[in-house]
Write a structure and sequence with these properties.
Elements (H helix, E strand, L loop, with lengths): L2 H75 L1 H8 L3 H27 L1
């Protein structure tokens, strides 16, 4: 075999070795990627399993909220009920009136004292 033949067969041998090495590396990377994807899909699956009860509960609460809102509106819509709810307690009304009288008296006292100075 000539020099060219030896170089050619050496190049083929090197090429085969590189292909074997790179296929081994690719297989290792491929295996690692498969493992990472399996772990990732497990995490996503767990997150989805955790989210399902939360979503169901959210829909249940939303329905309850809407029904409760309807009931409140119905109870408030009655005009007699509105008048009752808007009326002031007699004791609170007395306290408010007394406080207003005290405020007026204090304002008059302030006017008087400001004219003396």
């Amino acid at each position: 075999m000539g020099t060219k033949g030896k170089l050619f067969s050496a190049a083929i041998f090197e090429s085969n070795n590189i292909n074997k090495i790179s296929s081994g590396i690719n297989a290792e990377y491929g295996q690692k990627i498969k493992e990472l994807l399996a772990v990732y899909s497990g995490i996503i699956g767990n997150q989805l399993m955790d989210m399902v009860p939360k979503v169901v509960m959210s829909f249940m609460i939303q329905d309850f909220k809407e029904e409760l809102h309807k009931e409140f509106i119905e109870k408030i819509a009655d005009q007699d009920r509105v008048d009752y709810l808007m009326s002031e307690d007699p004791e609170v009304e007395d306290k408010r009136e007394r406080a207003m009288k005290v405020l007026q008296a204090l304002e008059r006292a302030e006017e008087i004292t400001s004219t003396l100075n």
